[in-house]
Amino acid sequence: MNGRERSGPFGAAAVRRYVTGLATAVREAVLAAQHRSASRLVRGHSPGGDAQFGLDDIAEAATWKYVADHDLPVAVYSEDRGLQYHGTDPAHLLVVDPIDGTRPAVAGLESATVSVAVARMSQCPRIADVEHAMLMELRTGAYLYGDRVTPGITAHGYDHPVPALTGTTDPARMLWSLEFNGHPARLMTEAYGHLIDRSANTGGVFVFNSATWSISRVLTGQLDAYVDIGNRLLRDDPALLSEFERVGNGRVLHLFPYDIAAAVFLAERAGAVITDAYGQPLGDTVLTDLSIANQRSCVAASTPELHRALLSTIRWKE
Question: Would the CA dihedral through 288, 317, 280, 314 be positive or negative?
């Protein structure tokens, strides 16, 4: 059976309806449970090692209820449950992070999204194989969507046209976000503390605890850049493993595929520059592998000039 026959009714329009419905169902469940005391409790850890809160349970349950309630055969890879199948011989893989930004969501802040990427099912699907992607804001329901068929990206629920990439080229003027979860603070400040000092007053420095939120803010024009360099620091100096494990409760917590699959697709189609911290494309990232070797770093910027400046100005270990 070839790919065209296996796709059946799951064409581009059907995929968009499906992922919009899925993200909406997750958002509604999370909002309904957001202020329950149990939502703040850490009840365990995901397969990748990240702490899972009670609110994550609600979001995961909503994800799988939506999948089970629909007849379309799909494979689903989610943060908490890994790879599972609904139906037989699915043609598509859904990579779902039901809440990217659990800590902000638990705190009632806005920097959290539902992230859904859709790729053709294969033995080794990669980010380069993603064909549809959606990031839906938990607080507002606004979303960014893109697919291989339609040029650019589609934005819904924003008060201005999106994408709206800035033209910022000077790191001293940039509004940017960075990552600390699972990253030793000492190593981070050694690498880009000078950039924090340089931009904190004439630009802005933020920690949102959500890769998808941060990258999506580059697309909306609210940020100029997003930086998560932990994985490069570890690759450059494997002796740092114990430090990363110390702050990750025994695990290495760098960017997992489900953290960035949808965001990379949307950023590339919107015209942003997004690579790992070596300046290499992220397309070879395997969508179903949580190993340290498949975890990633990320530098995203609104302009090529700012992206180059970040890569050249961050202090890498020699």
Answer: positive
Q: Structure tokens of 106?
A: 């638990």
Count of beta carbons in the 10 Å neighbourhood of residue 64: 17
Summarised one tens digit per residue, pLDDT across range 65-115 is 999 999 889 999 987 888 999 998 899 999 999 999 988 998 889 999 999
From CA 121, how far away is CA 83, in angstroms rounded?
A: 12
Confidence of residue 203 (pLDDT cuts 50, 70, 90): very high
Contact yes or no for 94/82 (Cβ under 8 A): no
Averaged confidence pLDDT in the chain: 92
pLDDT band at 200 (very low <50, low <70, confident <90, very high): very high
Which pLDDT does position 196 carry in this prediction? 97
